[in-house]
Amino acid sequence: LAGGIILGVALWLRHDSQTTNILYLQLGDKQAPNTFYVGIYILIAVGAVMMFVGFLGCYGAIQESQCLLGTFFTCLVILFACEVAAGIWGFVNKDQIAKDVKQFYDQAFQQALMAESETNNGKAVVKTFHETLDCCGPDNAIGAITPLWRDDLCPKKDSFLKNFIESSNCHKKIDELFSGKLYLIGIAAIVVAVIMIFEMILSMVLCCGIRNSSVY
Fold first, then answer.
1. CA–CA separation, 40 vs 21, rounded Å?
2. How many angstroms separate the CA atoms of 62 and 51, rounded?
3. Which class for 109: exposed (0-12), middle (13-18), buried (19 or more C-beta within 10 A)?
4. CA-based, 20 to 30 A from 199: which of 14, 65, 126, 135?
5. Tens-of-pLDDT digits for all 216 residues of the chain?
6. What residue ranges define each of the domains in the chain, with the CATH number in brackets?
């Protein structure tokens, strides 16, 4: 059940419309940074393997097989080690993920402002960011006045003044998006880790109980 929950959360994060709209963008020959998906793929793998290992543990307990329970324990230790490694990686890279996406956005924004023709897709990339995150412009003076003089790049409002007042800068929105998603991943990882610790303890208790009962 825990494996199924983790797998479901990971698949939901993987196919979330906001992140997929942004991370599948391509600016010329440059692909949007998708380091964020590394953590998602690890969660998907852990969830799928946990489901399989869970069946293995159930079958070993029903059959009272020390071999299967020992294999179950070994698999849990490996999964736990992978999850700890993934957690450390995520903690180290949590700021870098949003930073890379913001740099990609800034490059597209500069191209969209300077482009005199439709030869590059900077304008399309920027509009996708703006429509997906309901924001306008980067976190600087140019971004602050963009709604007033480049209305074609920003989500449409009823008036220029309303556009200027209500539009948030995209750097802030990108930070909010990825910090929220990484927060969910962190909660899921902690829940899985706690469940794994209990599973390892209980599997060893059961294995020792089977060993002692077989003596008599």
1. 16
2. 17
3. buried
4. 14
5. 778 888 888 888 888 888 888 888 877 777 788 777 877 887 788 888 888 888 888 888 888 888 888 888 888 888 888 777 777 777 777 778 888 888 888 888 888 777 654 556 788 888 888 888 888 777 755 555 555 445 667 766 554 555 555 557 888 888 888 887 777 777 777 877 888 888 888 888 888 888 777 544
6. 1-214 (1.10.1450.10)
CB 109 within 8 A of CB 138: yes
- Cα–Cα distance for residue pair 200/196, rounded to 1 Å: 6
Note the helical H segments in 115-169: 122-133, 141-149, 160-166
CA 43 to chain centre: 9
| Residue 142: CB atoms within 10 Å | 14
How far is Cα 205 from Cα 73, in angstroms, rounded to an integer? 11
**Residue 36 token pair:** 């964020």
Strand partners, 168: 135
